[in-house]
Design a protein that fits this description.
Pfam families: MFS_1. This is Drug H(+) antiporter. GO terms for molecular function: transmembrane transporter activity. The structure is a single chain. The radius of gyration is 20 Å and the shape is globular. 58% of the residues are buried. The chain is built from 18 helices and no strands. It starts with 8 loop residues before the first helix and ends with a helix. It has two domains: 387 residues, Growth Hormone, Chain: A (Up-down Bundle); 49 residues. By secondary structure, the protein is mainly alpha-helical. It is 82% helix and 0% strand.
């Protein structure tokens, strides 16, 4: 266990790197209008600016997690920082549709390396109460980062330029690289070789699966390809000695519950983060800046609550805290489904948003802890990869489901209400996963 005497630089590197990933995953939501204007993009092309990032992010996640196990976490982490920083620079410099789409794809590869590696470094570095606290901060960053990104995106798009949101990652990546070299221990990785059949089949299968969700054409063939390649991947992982994703990870009831619950929970939240700023701008007359700033109540409450997670976990247990958090998130989402312009911003959005913020602050850290529970050091990277896969796939599925639900209704208010209600249904499924799998699995240990 590594103890920092003055300042925990390792935790800073982990959290800041994770924040960069979340920033570029969500900042696009409040900057899309400006990006479309500057680069003359139509709606179909604009959707790919966000979708291609999800495609490569989801496709390379398992590879990123396993690479850290085999080749050393610090080395792979540094490679991820270089790719992500360079990708961010290219996005900011983009002058046309092909350039920004290619740059976002490249950036997604960097995120796929960084996301599981940062969590695996955390698992290697901390033990006991310090690990609980570090995971609490890491999990909280998932909600805080996404919410803050909406605010930052609105500020940059309105007062400066959307490009600043990507340029800012370049100096941060350089700083993180310096801190990694200085403070992260050099590890040699494990003996073994990369499973190329598993790597390629997982890459193609995950990419096809994400495309079948977010793509606007050839979705059915993509889904068939996804089923075929993922079936091959599972068979390969079952038969070899050094799999890229050990199937024993799914032999634990608590971890299975965490994976399933995280998928549904992030599905609801990603859809919520996407459609709510649009409602504010179209129905309440908010600018992009005001829509971003309107998420401050959720962000502040989320931050305050997240700081208490380590203490509350010791009191109520990880599973109990998770059940409470999901239930509060669902209650806030149900409340928001009654929004109308007559109800207004404060009662129709701010009040339920604060309940959602409390629930989000209580949920994401326990989800992360349960997703890596009972893993040995050799499986830390793979388990971290699966946690992030469920995060990414869940977000893509949920966003697609909520946007599709919204489009089924003629009026935006009615569409928003039913979409948020669908999000509440996804949260109910997440709650059932926590009650039926995570809590019993936690008590069995």
């Amino acid at each position: 266990m590594t103890k920092q005497k003055r300042f925990d630089w390792i935790l800073l590197v982990i959290l800041m790197s994770y924040f960069m990933i979340l920033l570029d995953n969500s900042i696009i939501f409040t900057g899309t209008v400006k990006i479309a204007q500057d680069l003359h993009l139509n709606q179909a092309t604009l959707s790919w600016v966000s979708s291609v990032y999800s495609l490569t992010f989801g496709g390379f996640l398992l590879l990123g997690g396993r690479a850290g196990d085999l080749f050393g976490r610090r080395r792979v982490f540094e490679i991820g920082l270089v790719i992500f920083g360079l990708g961010s620079l290219l996005v900011g410099l983009a002058i046309n549709a092909p350039m920004i789409i290619a740059a976002r794809a490249f950036q997604g590869i960097g995120s796929a390396i960084l996301a599981p590696t940062t969590l695996a470094i955390l698992m290697d570095t901390y033990e006991g109460a310090e690990r609980v606290k570090a995971i609490a901060y890491y999990g909280a960053m998932a909600g805080i980062g996404a919410s803050v990104s909406l605010v930052i995106g609105g500020v940059f798009a309105s007062l400066l330029t959307w490009r600043v949101g990507f340029f800012i990652n370049v100096p941060i990546s350089i700083w993180m690289f310096y801190l990694a070299v200085k403070h992260l221990k050099r590890d040699q990785g494990q003996s073994g070789k990369l499973d190329w059949v598993g790597t390629i089949s997982s890459l193609l299968g995950m990419s096809a699966l994400v495309y079948s969700i977010i793509g606007d054409w050839l979705q059915v063939p993509a889904l068939i390809l996804a089923i075929g390649f993922l079936s091959l991947f599972i068979f390969q992982e079952w038969r070899i000695k050094s799999p890229i994703m050990p199937l024993r990870l799914f032999g634990d009831r608590e971890r299975i519950g965490a994976y399933v619950g995280r998928l549904f929970y992030l599905g609801a939240m990603m859809g919520f983060w996407f459609i709510t700023p649009q409602l504010m701008q179209n129905q309440l007359g908010f600018s992009a800046l005001m829509a971003g700033m309107a998420f401050f109540p959720l962000t502040i409450v989320n931050f305050v609550v997240a700081l208490q997670v380590a203490r509350l976990t010791a009191k109520w247990g990880n599973g109990g805290l998770l059940v409470m958090g999901i239930a509060l998130t669902m209650a806030g989402m149900l409340w928001m489904s009654f929004f109308t312009p007559a109800v207004g911003y404060w009662l129709g959005i701010v009040a339920p948003m604060m309940i959602i913020g409390i629930g989000q602050g209580l949920s994401l850290s326990p989800f992360t802890a349960a997703g890596v529970a009972h893993t040995q050091g050799a499986d830390a990277g793979a388990a971290s990869g699966v946690v992030n896969v469920m995060h990414q796939i869940g977000g893509s599925v949920g966003l697609s489901v909520l946007v599709t639900t919204q489009s089924l209704f003629s009026g935006q208010i009615s569409g928003f209400q039913h979409a948020i209600l669908m999000g509440s249904g996804l949260l109910l499924l997440a709650l059932l996963a926590a009650v039926c799998l995570i809590v019993p699995g936690e008590h069995q240990k």
